[in-house]
Structures are given as C-alpha cells and as structure tokens.
Write a structure and sequence with these properties.
This protein is α/β, with parallel strands linked by helices. It has 14 helices and 5 strands. It has a 5-stranded parallel sheet with strand order 2-1-3-4-5, sandwiched between helices. α8 links the parallel β4 and β5. It catalyses: N-acetyl-D-muramate 6-phosphate + H2O = N-acetyl-D-glucosamine 6-phosphate + (R)-lactate.
C-alpha cells in the first residue's frame, strides 16, 4: 500500500497548467523552507547501494527520532496534563490530520478501546476525506480548513474536549483548520508537527514541534516524521490514560477481554497484581463479570464484587484510591 505524505508534494506537471503557475510556485516556495522536504545530496545515489547498506542507513536515521522527541518532553508533558484534566471532566481526545498523519491519529484512537476499555467515542481519529482516506488518498481533502471545522461540528465539540492537529509539515490546512476551529470553541488544542516555527504550532495552545530533519526519501514524511508522530501520540494517549487511573502501576487493568488472548492476559494481570492462586483469580473475575480492575480490588481489598464496583466509582476509577479507601475503613 502506498501512502501519500501529509504535505501532498506531488505537483508534477502542475506548472504546465494555465493559471496554476502562481499557485504552485507559492506552494513550492513554502515547501522549500521545510526541513522535512529538504533534499539530501549525499543520498542521491542510494539506489545504487546494496539492500543491507540501505537498511543500515534507514536504521541509523530512525535512531535519531527518539532524541528529537526527548527535546520536547517538557512541552509534551504539559500538553498531556492539560488533556488529562479535560478528560477527567468528561472531555474527549480528538486527533485530526491528513494522509499519513491522519492515519496515525486514527490508529492511536482505535487502539484505546481494547487497551484501556474506553468508549470508542472518547478517543476519536479524524482523517481528511473520511474513513475511505485510510486506504485511498482523497484528493484535495487536506487543503480544506472548512472540512475540518465541519468534521468537528459533526462531533458536537465541547470546551472539555482536546483536539490534536497532526501534520509533519505543520502547514496542512485541514490540521490547522481543526485546531483553529477547536480553539474558537474553547477546546484545548495541541499542534503536532515536525518543522520549527510551524503555522500549526502557532495556531495551537500547545505547540509540539519535533524536528526530525530531512527524510531518507525527499519529502516522504511517513518515515522519520511519521515515527516521531507515532511516538508522541503513544505518549499522549498512554500517559493520559495512566493519569485517568486506567492502569495500576504498569499493568493494563482496564483491558477489555474481547478474545482468548486478552482473556488470558486478564488473568495474568490479576496474578501479577495480587499474587493470588488461579482459583482465587477465577472466583474474583466471576464475581466482577470479568472486570480486571474490580477483580484485583476484590482480592487485595477483600471485598465482594458490588462493593468493589462502588469503591471504584467513588474513586473515579483509580484503583490505588479505592484500595486506600478500603484500608482506612
């Protein structure tokens, strides 16, 4: 499957179109200022290298991405804390992007229900052009700020929501439009890009610019930039869920046991958290309709299923707080 880059740089032949030279000339000038679009002359003959040599170069390029992310950890942490505060009030986490960036947002959102037992409406991924754009490029969709606003309006955006605009270039109109519209509605806004001084970061309350530099293939931002975006989105969703009490230590206690593998994992998690016997684990899961967090509380707190459910409700789903409540009564 071939992905388009989120800068949509394929303008071959555009300057031959009557009346288009000004438009595309301006766009080419913009792209020329972006490090993600820069040409690397030292790699101009990479196609003449052996497969292993190319793979080594790619691996070396990828190894630079975590360092670029590390430079922005204070800003990322601040954005996560603000997101968690909104979500604790019932807000949603909404990703918005085009092309590769949009697909990464949809991917991260789709992983939250099985991992953290979130409702599918709690973490949402919007991609310019709609669901079909996940597998097929929808021409022109990324160029519309109005489309982004309409997509957010369809979700009935509230001031408790968080909208994360994602764009490697930092200039994609769909991502910028999503952030501008969300900010006007009072929602929290985050702009994730891979170029410095980007329009997307400037439009957002929290601008996260993870500068990964020129790509191995000129302008192919599904490479280092895409990897950086994936790492940051992993942080945003995972750390937010930790802050919301979706984990106990590093255990996924809100995992949804929707298949045999996850049912086995559920039992393993209860075992790791409690050290209880298989018999006790099965009894606790039976008493809590298979809810891992509740089963742990039944065992460690020595309470029944309904009491565990009540204590967790009273503690807003935080297992440590529920255990503390048991131990103080």
């Amino acid at each position: 499957m071939t992905s388009t880059t989120d800068a949509n740089t394929d303008t071959a032949g555009a300057t031959d179109t009557p009346g288009a030279s000004g438009t595309y000339g301006e766009l080419r000038a913009q792209l020329a200022t972006l490090t993600t679009e820069a040409f690397r002359p030292e790699l101009a003959e990479i196609d003449r290298l052996s497969t292993e040599e190319i793979a080594r170069i790619m691996n070396g390029e990828d190894a630079t991405v975590p360092a670029a992310v590390a430079e922005r950890l204070p800003q990322i942490a601040a954005a996560i804390d603000a997101t968690a505060e909104r979500m604790a009030r019932g807000g949603r986490l909404i990703y918005a992007g085009a092309g590769t960036a949009g697909r990464l947002g949809v991917l991260d959102a789709s992983e939250c229900p099985p991992t953290f037992n979130t409702d599918p409406a709690e973490v949402v991924g919007l991609i310019a052009g709609g669901p079909s754009a996940m597998v097929t490029a929808v021409e022109g969709a990324e160029d519309s700020k109005e489309l982004a606003a309409a997509d957010l309006d369809a979700l009935k955006l509230t001031a408790d929501d968080t909208v994360v605009g994602i764009s490697a270039s930092g200039r994609t109109p769909y991502a910028i439009g999503a952030v501008e519209h969300a900010r006007a509605q009072g929602a929290l806004t985050i702009g994730l890009s891979c170029n410095a001084d980007s329009a997307l970061a400037a439009a957002a309350e929290h601008g996260l610019e993870v500068v990964t530099g020129p790509e191995l293939l000129t302008g192919s931002t599904r490479l280092k930039a895409g990897t950086a975006q994936k790492l940051v989105l992993n942080m945003i969703s995972t750390v937010t869920m930790i802050r919301l009490g979706k984990t106990y230590g590093n255990l996924m206690v809100d995992v949804r046991a929707s298949n045999e593998k996850l049912r086995a994992r559920s039992r393993h998690i209860v075992s790791l958290a409690t050290g209880a016997s298989d018999t006790a684990i099965e009894a606790a899961l039976a008493a809590t309709d298979g809810e891992v967090k509740n089963a742990i509380l039944v065992i460690l707190g020595q309470v029944d299923g309904p009491t565990a459910a009540r204590l967790l409700t009273e503690s807003d789903g935080h297992l440590r707080a529920a255990l503390a409540a048991v131990r103080t009564t």
